[in-house]
Design a protein that fits this description.
Elements lengths: L8 H13 L26 H11 L4 H7 L12 E2 L12 E3 L17 H7 L2 H17 L4 E2 L24 H17 L3 E7 L18 E3 L2 H8 L1 H8 L4 E4 L3 E2 L2 E2 L4 H11 L5 E3 L9 H5 L23 H8 L5 H17 L19 E3 L9 E3 L10 H12 L1 E5 L11 E5 L40 H8 L2 E5 L15 E8 L26 H11 L3 E7 L14 E6 L7 H9 L35 E3 L7 H7 L17 E10 L33 H5 L12 H12 L33 E11 L8 E7 L12 E7 L8 E9 L5 E3 L4 E3 L8 E5 L5 E6 L5 E3 L5
Parallel strand pairs: 2-3, 3-4, 4-6, 5-7, 5-18, 6-9, 13-14, 13-15, 15-16, 16-17
Antiparallel strand pairs: 1-2, 7-8, 10-11, 12-17, 19-20, 20-23, 21-22, 21-26, 24-25, 26-27, 27-28
Helix pairs in contact: 2-12, 3-11, 4-13, 5-6, 5-13, 6-8, 11-19, 13-16, 14-16
The structure holds 1-deoxynojirimycin (NOJ).
Length: 872
Amino acid sequence: MSAPHSFSIFSLILLSLSSCASSIDVPAGYVAAPYYPAPHGGWTSDWTESYRKASLLVSNMTLAEKTNVTAGTGIFMGRCVGNTGSATRVEFPSLCLQDGPLGIRNSDHNTAFPAGITVGATFDKNLMYARGVALGEEFRGKGINIHLGPSVGPLGRRPRGGRNWEGFGSDPVLQAFGGARTIEGIQSVGVIATIKHLIANEQEMYRMYNLAQPGISSNLDDRTLHELYLWPFAEGVRSGVGAVMMAYNAVNGSACSQNSYLINNILKDELGFQGFVMSDWLAQISGVASSLSGLDMSMPGDIHTIPLLGSSYWMYEYSRSILNGSVPVDRLNDAVTRILATWFQLGQDQDYPKPNFDTNTLDAEGPLYPGSLFSPTGIVNEFVDVQGNHADVARDIARDAITLLKNTNGILPLSKTAKLKVFGTDAEKNPDGINSCTDMGCDKGTLGMGWGSGSARYPYLDSPIDALKARGANFTFFNTDSFPSNSNPAASDIALVFVNADSGENYITVENNPGDRTSANLNLWHNGDKLVQDVAAKYTNVIVIVHTVGPILLEAWHDLPAVKSVLFAHLPGQEAGESLMQILFGDVSPSGHLPYTIPTSEDNYPDSLDLIGFELGQPQDTFTEGLYVDYRHFHKANITPRYAFGHGLSYTTFSFTNATITPVTPLTSTPPARPAKGTPPSYPTAIPAAAEAYWPAEAKTYRIWRYLYSWLEKADADAAAADLAAGKKYPYPPGYTTTQKPGPPAGGAQGGNPALFDTAYTVSLRVTNTGNATGRAVAQLYVQFPPGLAVDTPAVQLRDFAKTGPLAPGASQTLQLRLTRKDLSVWDVAAQNWLVPSVAGDYGVWIGEAVDRLGVRCGSATGGCVEKAFSL
Ligand code: NOJ
C-alpha cells in the first residue's frame, strides 16, 4: 500500500495528479500490506564488526552529515552516474556509483564483457565467478565504490521485455547462480555489488512515475513472488551483497522505492539484508514515506519530476523531517549505519582508490559538476587502463555460451579450407564506429550487447569478419542485409548468415522499439528472415549465426533443407569474433545451453505475457500466469517449443551414468526454528538540535548552483524544530509503528532461515564423453514434486547444474549436484514459510542436458537412480 508522501510541494502536486488519473485499480487480492518499522541492520553475526565500526562513526556525526550520505548530490553532479554526499569530518568519502552489469559504462580502457544472458548460457558457475572478479577489478581500478549490477530482475517473464539480456535467463535458479556468483566475484576485490531491480520490472514501457502517470504496477501473488522473482534476490543476499536497487515500477500498487512490504518485510526482515537499499535513478517519489518504508539511499538525489533544479526529497528535506519529528531519528541512524557498515564490510576504509574517470565526458578536463551551469573545472579523466587480462575470461565466456541448436549431417565444425560466403551486416563492426551510438542505442553491425545503462563502450570489437581474417579463412563477405545478386553460389560453398535481434532500456528508442521489442516482436531485425530464406534458396549449406537479446522466432527458415546449422552466439561483448571461430572451426566444441525457451509462435505464450500498452491512470500488469513462465508454462500448456530451455548440442555426445542420491539433512515439513536476531547498534533517540543542520557560513562561499546539500537555512531549521514543539504530527500510514519486530519465521540470516539452505540430498553422476571430439557437458538437475499433493507445482523445475571440464573422447568426470530444503519446499502463503509438502513423498530428481532431455531419474524416497526418459 502506498504510504503518504512527504510535505514537499512537488509530492503534493504529484499525489493529486496521480490520484485523479487513477481510473484503473490494482485487482482485488494483490496486496502490498504495510510493514513497519524498517528493521535495523546489524543483527547477523557476519556483519557485527562492520556495524561496530560504523556505529562509532555514526555516533559522532551531525544531522547534516548523516543526511548528506543518504543521497546523491544530484544528477550530473560528479564524475560517476551517482555520487553521494560525504562526511569528511569523520573521514567518510563521497561514494561513486557506476553502471553497469557487463562493464564500466561510459568509460575508457575497460572491458566490454559478454552480457548476463550470455553468461547464463554457459551454465558455468566458475565463469560466472571469474567474470565477477574481473568486473570487480575494473570497477575498483577506476575508483568506483559501488557497481550497479548484477541485474536479476527482470527475470525474462515477458520475452519481448527490453532488459532481459542484462540478467542470466528465464529461470530463477539459473538467474540466482548467475547473480550470486557475480556478486561473490565483484565483492572479492572490495567493490560493493548492487543486485537490481527489486522487483518484477518485467517491461520497460511505463516503468517510471512521472507528472502525468504513475509507473506500471506489477501485480503478483505472494507465492509467485517467493518461488520465482524473489529467488535470485534471496541468493544474492545470501552471498552478502552490499546494496539492493529498488525497481521503477510499483508492486501491487505501491511504488517499489517506497513499498514497505517489499523493503521492510521481505528484504530486510525475511531475507535478512544487512546492506543498504537505493532507489533506481529518479524512482524515489516521496521523502518521509520512502524513508519509513526502508529506503536508505536516494539516487541520484533529485526529485523525480523535474530533476536538475537543486530539489530533493531528501538531503535538506531529510534534515527538516528529522527536526520536525516526521522521521524518527533511529530510522536515519539505521540508514546511515547500513551505508557505512557496507563500506567497512567491503574494506573500503583501507586504501580504496578515488574515481579517476568521468561518466559524462571522454575529455581529460571538464566541469566537475556538469549539471551546474557554473561549475569549477579540472582533470576528470585519467584514462587508467583497467583491462588487465580480462579479454581472456570475456572470450572464454563468449565461446562457452555459444549454443548449437541444430547441426544437420555434422556440417559443423568447418574444415580450415572451407570456402565461405558470409552475409549480413551483423558480421562486421558498425561502419560509423563501434561506439558511435550513445549507450549502444542503435542496431548497426555486430550486436555485442543491448542498449541502455547496461551497456559499456567497447575498447575494441573483435568482429566475426576480423576473426575470419585473422584465421586466414577462405571467405567472401557481403556486407548487406539484402541478398546480393553477385555472390556466385557454388555447390561447395558454405554460407554463413549473420542476423540479430536487439532490445534495451526505455529512454532510448531504436527502430521503433522503445526498449521492449514492441515493433520488432520476436522477429529478427533488418529483414533477417528474408536474408536467410534468400541465401537458403541459392546455397545448399547454410549456417545461421544469431546475436540476440532473447528468444526469436526461427520458423520462417529453420526447416528449410539448406539451413543445416543454427548457432546462438547471444551477446558476446567485445570478443565476438575469435570466440565464434573457435567453435566454427572446431578448436572447441560448443557447450552453451539455452537460458530460455524458443517458441514456435508468440501464441505459445499466455496472453498475460503480452506487453501492456497505454492505460489511463496506473497501467496494471497482473501476473495471472503465476509460476508458469518459460518452460514451466510450456509444460503446463503441453506445447512443444521449437527449442526447449537448456537445449544445446556439442560436437560430441555424453552419457550420464552411475547416478546416486544420498540423503544428508533429514527433512521435516516445517523448517527448524530460525535463529533470533542479534543486537544491532543503538543510539540516543533524542531529536538533534536545529543547529546541526544550519548552513555553515563558509560553505555558502563555495556553494555550487543546483547541487544538493543537506543543510537548511537557519530560519527553516528553526521552523522545523518549532513545528515539533507545537506538536504537529506527520500523517503516518496505516500499520505504522516504531517497535522493532523479531522478524518472520522464514528469516534468520542473510537469504532467509539458514535451515532452508541445508543440503537435503546430494546427487552424484558420472559423465562420459561417448563421441569423437573433446567437449564439455552440462548436467541440469530438475525437481519434480511428489504426485498427489494438494498444492499445484510445475512439472519440473531447475534446481542445480554443473559443467564438466573439457573431456577427451572416452574420458569421464563425476559431477556433484545438491538439493537444499528450500529446493524441495513450496512457499506456503498461510504459514508464511517454506514447507516441504510431502516429507515421505518420492521427489523425482531428474538429470539431463536440457529440460526436454532428462534421462536419469533419482527418487528421494526410493533412494535409487534409474536411466529413464522424462515425459509429462
Ligand atoms: C536506470 C536503470 O534502471 C538502472 O539499472 C541504472 O543503474 C540507473 N539508471 C543508473 O544509470
